[in-house]
Amino acid sequence: MPGPTTSPTPLTRRRLLVLGASFTGGAALLAACGGDDDPSAARTTDGAAGTDAIAGDSTTTPTTPDDSAGRAAPVTSGASASTAGASPGTPADTVFTAADFGALGACLVLPDLTQGPFPTVDQIERRDITEGHAGLPLRVGVQVVDESCVPIPGATVEIWHCDIDGDYSAYADGSTDDDDGVGTTFLRGSQVANADGIVEFLTVYPGWYQGRAVHIHATVHLADATVLTTQFLFDDALNDEVLATAPYAAFGQSTTTNADDGVTGGAAEEDGLLFTVADDTAIDGRRALIVVGLDPSGTSRGGAGGGPGGGGPDGDRPAP
């Protein structure tokens, strides 16, 4: 199946293009992103939180299990002119192919959003970002495309998220018992898109904290410019399922659904802001895919803000 089909009419913000492809295998949940300006989120934001640097960057790139045997060969679309000739970093043998993303049946230009108070300061290029942290194994696949749904090779995609009890690495917020603070780097990393605009990460399913639906933060960089800051969310039913299992169950069910999430305005489903998730037997976990559309000439303003709700927890958690 070919990758995202080029539309004769350029995509506009939040315009969903249904490409007529049928979903194949696994439950289909739509792709997601949201902002970091939720005034109701519980973690307290202070001036220092947005400036703490990360020390001790890891430069190793762990090997990802390869379950690509028997899969369709990658289908490469033309590169955007602004990134043609870029050197891809994610290898061509990633388990994800352009056909996987084409099967989602749609692509979306995502809105630019604030990054929250706990962003990654120093990028760590690596595919496996778990650093041994507990949780359900999760393989994240992102395909970066332009307004015409054409893949963008060479785009750098950075992701970060909290651990199973809502703690972010790199910042000492004191809100969880295992707060590792400044100098830690777990659950943060970046990859450079291959010829199909695809990056792949190995991580664990995020936990939750007061005031936010379960989410993963992301930014996309082209050359020295940050062109998009966003978030990816998960289906409520899937969150309930995962959070009811060990080791998540010790921290209870999330108190915020996608409909109640103040960052996305409760519009995650109608705006198509949810991952597509399926089982991944090779890692005994799940895989989550999303097509991320953007304007290659744009400039993200996500770093300019960072209100409550973008980073991590504060206040009371359910008793273990």
How would you describe this structure to a colleague?
The strands form three sheets. A four-stranded mixed β-sheet has the order 6-3-10-9. A hairpin with a 2-residue loop joins strand 7 (215-222) and strand 8 (225-233). The chain has helices at 98-102, 236-243, and strands spanning 16-18, 106-108, 137-145, 156-160, 188-192, 198-204, 215-222, 225-233, 276-280, 285-293. The protein is mainly beta and 320 residues long. The protein has one domain (1-50, 81-311): Protocatechuate 3,4-Dioxygenase, subunit A, CATH 2.60.130.
Give the CATH level 1 class. Mainly Beta
- Count every beta strand, where a strand is a DSSP E run of 2 or more residues: 10
Helix and strand element order: EHEEEEEEEHEE
According to CATH, what is the topology? Protocatechuate 3,4-Dioxygenase, subunit A
Q: Any guess at the CATH architecture?
A: Sandwich
Number of domains: 1
Mean pLDDT, to the nearest integer, reads: 72
- The SS-based structural class is mainly beta
* Rg, nearest Å: 18 Å
CA(first)-CA(last) distance = 46 Å
Biggest β-sheet, characterized?
4 strands, mixed
> What is the helix tally?
2
Residue share in helix:
under 10%
Note the overall shape. globular
How do the strands of the widest beta sheet line up side by side? 6-3-10-9
Uncertain stretches: 1-88, 305-320
CATH superfamily: Aromatic compound dioxygenase
